[in-house]
Fold this sequence. Notes:
- The protein is 29% helix and 24% strand.
- By secondary structure, the protein is of the alpha+beta class.
- Strands 5, 6, 7, 8, 9, 10, 13, 14 and 18 form a 9-stranded mixed beta sheet that branches.
- α8 runs parallel beside α9 and α9 (212-232) packs across α10.
- It starts with 6 loop residues before the first helix and ends in a 10-residue tail after the last strand.
- The model is unreliable at 1-6 (pLDDT under 50).
Amino acid sequence: MTDTPADPVLSAVQRYQSCLPPEEYARLLSVVSQPADSAVRVNLLKNPDPRQAFSRWSQPYGWQARPVPFASNAWQISSAQTPPGQTIEHRFGYYYIQDAASILPVSLFSPLPTDGLMLDMAASPGGKTTQLVDSGGDANLVLANDSSASRLQALRVVLLNWGAANTAVINFPGEKLGAWFPERFDRVLLDAPCSMEGLRVSASHPFRPITAAERERLSARQFALLESAVSTARVGAEIVYSTCTLAPEENEAVLSDFLEKHPGSVRVERATVAELNAPGLTHFAGRDFDPQAAHSLRLWPHLAGTNGFFAVKLIKLTPLNLPRQMPPFRPFIKTGLERLETKDQVLLFTMLQDLYSFDFRAETEKRKLLPYRRERQLFLLPEQYLRGFSELPYYALGFPFGKWSGTNFELSPEMVSRFGDRFRSNVWTIPEEWVRQWLQGHDIRGVAVSGCQKSSIIALRDAEGRNLGAGKNLPGRLRNLLPSRAILNP
């Protein structure tokens, strides 16, 4: 074989030749130089019928797609006349684009009971966090942690665009959470930092050689994170450990080391995916792993047209009894947030229901969200956070509800993006000739917006009924309130 840029990839793949039957290995070789098809995962908060929503998009955008085998609301796009990243629906958070393999970890969790707590230990960029939010209908708190401060803003933007309110974004080393919050969570996701050896070449994940020393460093950190993750889980709770690498040193070896150090603390749940034969390894490169490693999932790239991935589900059986520490402390009063008085809540919800013909009170009660104010701003905060973590410093908490402008209350653009599809009044269908101007972030001038209250925040739709965000109905001008992430470049 000639010395080409693909040779290092072939060398990496050859490391796993003994792990697969000859015919399976040949299939693996045939796909490693082909980028994996991206997947579209439908936002269940905004699309209660994901199949209907996907069909509504795929036809006009010319999408050729196949269902993701381990998710009922996701499809892999093999070809598209309009790329999924260039649609109105994508800009407004109606679906998330990701590699299909990364949808696997959260899909392994069973449904969460009411008032359950979820922890995402390494949450950024937020795709799996939004999937956790969807899994509980945004009615259970998701504590989204990331140890990198530089990644928090991107995570927060993803959650806002998704419409996720029952969340708190925090910034701590994941290794410490187990000592701070032992026996607290019902679902714990640890999508661990890894070498990203997914055995497929793509523009977003170009191949790079991985040294044995790097794998050793990563596996040591992954073990510490897994130990912390299991510690945070209640007895009977579910923990999913996953990586976007196929290196056994970072997967089965980490699991096996944990089982050896903490015998009887967890049960490895046998994980299966319909039509895919993807068991974990029980030995590699002269090392034997715990037999329970076979219950994990090793998603080789040729099995479902994805990048390589690993995931395993654990059920906690007994406490780990690790040393405990006091978590960071900040009195909640220092946030400047105060609970909105009941009488003011009643007046506000009544006014908004009259204006939009939508029951905001019912939605907040359903999701256990409480209105809090800071000066003239109003936020919806998760009751579970306030009850159990109120003194834990956070980067972002809850969802922006709106603000007072004089005596008027202005609904936030995020609330319009989240619930505007369901408003039955104070909604304006923008004429087709102005849609592009609007989506480019410009105000609409010299227009009379009929049927909407003056000086109020209104919800916009196009002729197809798609939610186009919020505007302020000013005299002679419709002020554009689209966030920068939704604006279409000229």
